Amino acid sequence: MPSARPRILYVTDLAYQARGRRYCDEDIFLTSRLRDEFDLALCHPRDAAALMGAFDAVVVRNSGPVLAYQEAYDEFRRRAAADGTRVYNPLTGQADMAGKQYLLDLTTAGYPVIPTVDRAEDLGLLPRSDRYVVKPKLGADSIGLRIVSAEGARASADGGVLVQPCVDFAYEVSFCFVDHDFQYALYAPHPDRRWQLEPYEPTDADLEFARRFIDWNGIAHGIQRVDACRAPGGELLLVELEDLNPYLSLDALDPTRRDGFVAALKASLHGFLAAEA
Description:
With about 280 residues, the protein is of the alpha+beta class. About 30% of the residues lie in helices and about 25% in strands. The protein starts with 6 loop residues before the first strand and ends with a helix.
C-alpha cells in the first residue's frame, strides 16, 4: 500500500539533446514541485527496471526516444507487467506508446488524421501530391523522417514505414490533457520555426477535435498531447497522439497556467495511486 507520502520513481534522461528545447529544465521544474507531496527519485530509463520495485509508482517523463534504449524499455515493460508495477502513463496506451500503427488504424476508421498508408498498392488512397512524408513506424522526434517524390513514396512503401501526403499547413497546434481534462494549447504560428511556441486559445470545435483522440485512447490517468495541423481547407488533422513521454513546453506558459498544470498533475497522480491501490 502507498505510504502517507507516496514514493515516485521519476524516469528522465537529463542529458538528452533535443533540437530547440531543453528537456532537462522541464523535469527539474516538475520534480521541484512534485516534491511538495511525493517522495521522489530520478533515474535514467535504462535503470528503471532495476529500481522500480522500491517505489509506489513509476512516472515516465522526458525519457527520450525509446529507439535509443529499446532492449531496456522492452525489459521495463515486461517486468512492470509481471510485477504489477504502477506506471504513469499506464502502458495500455494505443498511440505513440505502441508505435505509429494507430495512424493507419485511424485513417481506416475515418478519423480526421493526415491520411496514412504503408503499402505501395494503397498510395492511390491518398490525396495526390508532388511530395510525400515517409517515416518509420517506430520513429520518434522526427528520426528517420524523409520528404520524397511520388516515385520515392512508391519505392519506400514496403509495409515498414508510413507514407503521408506532404500537407502545406498553416500552423501546428498541440493540446495538452491531464487525464481527460484539457489544460492548455500551444501553437507555432510560423511553420519554419517549429519550436517557437505561443499560447493558443482553442475554439469549442478545436477541443471537440482533440477530445475525440483522448476518448479513443482510453487512458484514465496520464498526460497526453494531441498534435495537429491546420490544413489548407481550415480543418484540423491529427499529426500524432503522444501518450508515452510528451514534452510539455511548460516554459511557454504564463505562471498561472503552469501552476494549474502542476496542480492537475498532482491530483492525477494521487487519483492514479488510489485507483491502482
